């Protein structure tokens, strides 16, 4: 079945011992969209990504990825379906060089993804040199990752995700702890990736949200969608102002 929706989430509820971290949440996004998700602490943003990636099983509801229900897909298979997740803290191999980090993912994909899951090997689609150019780290390719700045590590990890040729990229607070310049670089990278990927970015930093929100922003509150719209619409929405002022 073909669908223009990369992700559709219906009536999603997560009950943690009686507490609803997600409460009858409905969400959908088009293929090729960059969607930014904001919301106060505890709104359910991370849990939302945990459900999409199979880390947490919903109590109720459906998660459709490219029209297929993936609710019961185990976490280790989600990446193979084409969903890549970047956590807040960069998970790169610090003792390996930038190039070796990218090489490792490309080679792993070649064997695991293509053999077991019949997905194209990343190396056929992206070479390490292309990835280095995409993330703007050509000049640092032979440096150990431990010597990179925090922002550069974030970009390297994003490159490692892109090497998996994901259809949907989930990015959790990529600007956290970055300098203004690094924030802008990571934003520019996400905007360039958005030309060829569907992306969900969770973010707190409103300057950064303004930089990358090229379409719709979704506001989560108490485990549900409070409102959606352009950045201008949501930041002028009295419900959003109330929720943020109430923090
Ligand atoms: P956000 O990312 O928006 O800050 P989270 O998704 O981390 O919010 O958390 C939403 C709510 O669910 C919070 O109140 C949090 O304490 C609660 N929560 C998250 N994971 C668990 C868990 N495994 N058990 C119990 N409560 C949880």
TrEMBL record:
Q: Name one Pfam family in it.
A: ABC_tran
Q: What is its EC number?
A: 3.6.3.28
Instruction: Write out the GO MF terms.
Output: ATP binding; ATP hydrolysis activity
| Top EC class for this record | hydrolase
> Which residue windows are coiled coil?
none
InterPro entries linked to this entry: ABC_AA/LPS_Transport (IPR051120), ABC_transporter-like_ATP-bd (IPR003439), ABC_transporter-like_CS (IPR017871), ABC_transptr_urea_ATP-bd_UrtD (IPR017781), BCA_ABC_TP_C (IPR032823), P-loop_NTPase (IPR027417)
> Sorted alphabetically, which keywords does the UniProt record give?
ATP-binding, Hydrolase, Nucleotide-binding, Transport
Q: Under the cellular component aspect of Gene Ontology, which terms does the record hold?
A: plasma membrane
- Asked if Iron-sulfur is a keyword of the record, the answer is no
Q: Does the keyword Cell membrane apply?
A: no
Q: Which residues form the ABC transporter domain?
A: 7-247
The name of this protein is Urea ABC transporter ATP-binding protein
Q: What is the lineage of its organism?
A: Bacteria, Bacillati, Cyanobacteriota, Cyanophyceae, Pleurocapsales
């Amino acid at each position: 079945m073909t669908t223009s929706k990369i992700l559709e989430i219906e009536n999603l509820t997560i009950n943690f011992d009686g507490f609803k971290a997600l409460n009858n949440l409905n969400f959908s996004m088009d293929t090729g969209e960059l969607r930014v998700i904001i919301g106060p602490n505890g709104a359910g943003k991370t849990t939302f990504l945990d459900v999409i990636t199979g880390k947490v099983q919903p109590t109720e509801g459906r998660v459709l990825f490219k029209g297929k229900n993936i609710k019961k897909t185990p976490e280790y298979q989600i990446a193979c379906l084409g969903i890549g997740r970047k956590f807040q803290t960069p998970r790169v191999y610090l003792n390996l060089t930038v190039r070796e980090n990218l090489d490792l993912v490309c080679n792993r994909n070649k064997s695991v993804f293509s053999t077991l899951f019949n997905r194209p090997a990343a190396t056929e689609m992206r070479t390490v040199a292309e990835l280095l150019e995409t993330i703007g780290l050509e000049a640092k390719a032979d440096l150990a990752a431990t010597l990179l700045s925090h922002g550069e590590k974030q970009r390297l990890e994003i490159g490692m995700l892109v090497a998996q040729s994901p259809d949907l990229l989930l990015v959790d607070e990529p600007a956290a702890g970055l300098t203004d310049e690094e924030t802008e670089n990571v934003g520019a990278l996400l905007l360039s990736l958005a030309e060829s990927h569907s992306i969900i970015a969770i973010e707190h930093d409103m300057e950064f949200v303004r930089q990358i929100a090229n379409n719709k922003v979704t506001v989560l509150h108490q485990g549900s969608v409070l409102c959606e719209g352009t950045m201008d619409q949501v930041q002028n929405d009295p419900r959003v102002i109330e929720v943020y002022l109430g923090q």
